[in-house]
Design a protein that fits this description.
- Helices cover 31% and strands 30% of the residues.
- By secondary structure, the protein is an alpha/beta fold.
């Protein structure tokens, strides 16, 4: 995991995680990335590192293409045992296509989000929801 000098942007294998304002952290999955347990763990660590200073919302954006995932990733509660609730007010997921939407909804059917969460096709809708 590479961190820039100002600690506002963390580049992981599968995503960039950036504190774009005092109340928003953005996660952008990279095109071609395969979502794995270790990849999601790195993203959550980055969110924790950037989120320690103040509570914030998270905007999580998939690439335009269908995102692939390792089957073991979808069978694990990634938030369990992590302090996500302590620093996250809400999470908006921007899925961009039906494949990513089905995958995301399936995951949260088994492991509901511990914070308010919603799934959107478009980034503008997600940003509007987070602004409420």
């Amino acid at each position: 995991m590479n961190t820039t000098a100002d600690k506002r942007l963390i580049d992981t294998l599968i995503a960039t995680v950036q504190r774009t304002s005092p109340d928003l952290v953005e996660v952008r999955f990279k095109p071609g990335a395969v979502l794995t347990i270790s990849g999601i763990t790195a993203v959550l660590r980055a969110r924790e590192e950037l989120g320690r200073t103040a509570s914030h919302c998270a905007l999580i954006v998939f690439p335009e293409e269908e995102t692939d995932f390792d089957m073991s990733m979808i069978t694990m509660d990634h938030y369990k045992g992590r302090p996500v609730v302590e620093f996250t007010q809400a999470v908006a997921w921007v899925v961009r296509n039906e494949h990513n939407e089905r995958f995301t909804r399936l995951y949260f059917a088994y492991f509901p989000s511990p914070v308010p969460s919603a799934i959107f096709m478009e980034e503008a809708e997600a940003r509007a929801w987070l602004a409420k």
